[in-house]
Amino acid sequence: MEPQHVDADIEKVILTEDDIQSRLAEMAAEIERDYEGRELLLVGVLKGAVMVMADLSRHLSRHVEIDWMDVSSYGSGTRSSGVVRIIKDLDADITGRHVLVVEDIIDTGLTLSWLISNLRSRGPASVEICTVLRKPEAAKTDVDVKYVGFDIPNSFVVGYGLDFAERYRNLRVVATLAPHMYT
Ligand code: IMP
Ligand code: MG
């Protein structure tokens, strides 16, 4: 069956639009406090972070700059390959700058731990991480995440930027997929 309506493939909504937006507002307030008096560069990781970048940055009333990186660690399936490569690098030189990496989800943290050490090697003033979602596995890595939206159970989710085979990124909610979608 070729789904015409994204919603038809959902099993369970984990986070509503309201859940996400009110949490992002709280996180933005925290970020504003923490970075007061300092310039801030938000670095989004494509493609999943597009939604959170758009919403989080608009919850901020202070000046920020926005830049993007695209790194690849997943194929079109649901398992991490652990292999990271840069598909698109930053436009900005981050030397001496305060960088906040904005992520959709941290699962194994493999991608992020690689990314963080890559960014650190460029001589920024600071590098911190902000993610909407975090899975239990992430706790096992040495990656220190400063801002976490929600800790979620270890199941595959889609929506709010997250995809399955490049679909479902445009869902306004975070949801699990109906089992028939995997097969
Ligand atoms: P990690 O390296 O295992 O932390 O994986 C990070 C990337 O895997 C994320 O940026 C997502 O693109 C993808 N990912 C991990 N878990 C999920 C999920 O539940 N749904 C969709 N994508 C996921
Ligand atoms: Mg993905």
How would you explain this protein's 3D organization?
It is a single chain. This protein is globular. The chain has helices at 17-34, 50-59, 110-120; strands at 10-15, 41-46, 65-74, 80-88, 98-106, 126-134, 147-151, 157-158, 174-177. The protein is α/β, with parallel strands linked by helices and 183 residues long. The strands form 2 sheets. A 6-stranded mixed sheet has the order 4-3-2-5-6-7, sandwiched between helices. A 3-stranded antiparallel sheet has the order 1-9-8. The protein contains 3 helices and 9 strands, in the order βαβαβββαββββ. Residues 48, 73-74, 80, 104-112, 156-158, 162-163 line the site of inosinic acid.
Layout of strands and helices, then pairs:
Elements: E1 10-15, H1 17-34, E2 41-46, H2 50-59, E3 65-74, E4 80-88, E5 98-106, H3 110-120, E6 126-134, E7 147-151, E8 157-158, E9 174-177
Parallel strand pairs: 2-3, 2-5, 5-6, 6-7
Antiparallel strand pairs: 1-9, 3-4, 8-9
Helix pairs in contact: 1-2
The structure holds inosinic acid (IMP) and magnesium ion (MG).
Magnesium ion binds next to loops.
In this entry the ligands are: inosinic acid, magnesium ion
User: Number of helical runs?
Assistant: 3
Shape: globular
Order of helices and strands: EHEHEEEHEEEE
Taking pLDDT < 50 over at least 5 consecutive residues as the criterion, the unreliable ranges are none
Determine the strand fraction and express it as a percent band.
Answer: 25-35%
Radius of gyration: 16 Å
Strand order of the largest sheet: 4-3-2-5-6-7
Oligomer: single chain
| Biggest sheet overview | 6 strands, mixed
What is the β-strand count? 9
